[in-house]
Amino acid sequence: MLVGAGIVEVALSTMRNPPPRGRALLAGAMLGALPDVDIILGILLGRGGTLHGTATHSFTAVALWAAVGTLLGGGRWGAVFGLGYASHLLMDLLDESGPTNLMLLWPFSGQRPYSLGKLFPKVPVLGDGVVDTIRHTLRPESLLLLFQQTALAGVFAALLVLLAAVLRRRRTRVAASGR
């Protein structure tokens, strides 16, 4: 969510007529978390994390959400929705898993790419049902991994906000100089 909002903040800093900032950042944050809805579905169906990293972790899903944003509010909202959603895929490409939980080319391919970096710790989704999965997730080891992920995402988000500020300042100077 933090990185989704951060990436949207950078995008807003480059737009001539950006959508309302607060709503755009909220949309970016929510869409940044949305791909993991497959975890919740798997838990509710008693299949634990077995559905994680399926259709919701693909370029097709990014395009779908960008189209939804475009239909709801035009191209600027399409960019917000698409970038917010895509931020999740980027973060998953930076986890320590080796083969990722992404199916980027779904439905054309079920192939899973390898991680581009080993920055984010992987939090396993274990359990056969809601209670069992929650019990595993609330173990100290899992909570520590979640904390580490959140802290790293916070650093990424802070860097993105800094980049957005630099881009805004540059844009203001260029506009003031009449170029």
Describe this structure in words.
The structure is a single chain. The chain has 179 residues and is mainly alpha-helical. 63% of the residues lie in helices and 0% in strands. It is globular, with a radius of gyration of 18 Å. It is built from seven helices and no strands. The mean pLDDT is 90.
Radius of gyration from the alpha-carbon trace, in angstroms: 18 Å
Low-confidence stretches: none
Q: H/E element string? A: HHHHHHH
Q: List how many beta strands DSSP finds.
A: 0
Structural class by SSE content: mainly alpha
Helix content: 55-70%
The main sheet comes to: none
Number of helices: 7
Mean pLDDT: 90
Distance between the termini: 36 Å
Shape: globular
Q: Which percent range describes the beta-strand content?
A: under 5%
Quick take:
By secondary structure, the chain is an all-alpha fold. It has helices at about 1-15, 20-35, 35-45, 60-75, 75-90, 130-135, 140-175.
List the topology elements:
Elements: H1 2-14, H2 21-33, H3 37-44, H4 59-73, H5 75-92, H6 130-137, H7 140-177
Helix pairs in contact: 1-2, 1-5, 1-7, 2-5, 4-5
